[in-house]
Amino acid sequence: MTPVGNAELVVVGDLHGQADKLAKVLETYVGRAGKLIFVGDYVNRGPDSRGVLDLLSQARREMGDDLILLRGNHDQVLMDFLATGKPCRLMAHGGIHTISSYHSAIENNILDRFIEKFPPSHRALLEETLPYYEVPGILVSHAGFAPARPRSRNPNDMFLTSHKDLFQHTGPWPAPLTVCGHYVQTDGRPAALERLWCLDTGCGTFPDAPLTVLELEELRTIQF
Asked: Is the pTM of this model over 0.90?
């Protein structure tokens, strides 16, 4: 891993329940980053979604508003399940691993118990997640933007829907640089185009896949 110094804006790719890699990112950047921006998908697929939300809750206490938590589609399906009790979409998104991280053994009525016992602090953390982060020159969101509607900041366009033609988009662009996650790069390397970076390098989705971080000022990536 490349040593890091101070960095004003740092963007972290999809976590998917990989608490051990998140812990290394926080150890590296808390106190060094001006703002630490997460692109979402904190839960599902990986082994320790509960650990991820625990660590992010602690980071919130330490960093306050300098911790920017964006919402991903996996986070939304978990929130929808907590609100409705309907598990189909959560299970289709690898939610069984999220439930397992909160329960050490299979119990009767485990889905109901999961909802009843879900920590209020974790629910509050998910509810405060944002659809996007934007400053002059930079747009960060989970799913990038809708090529047909580059000025849209609708939640559906920012984090709920995949935009299959995003990587072939030729313009107009919503900002000089867009950073996203969501689109898994199966080679374990971030997609780095002239005006678009994708940081989902399979963390929590594939065994031993890296978690990718982008230091925006120098456009330097570091993997954990």
From this structure: yes
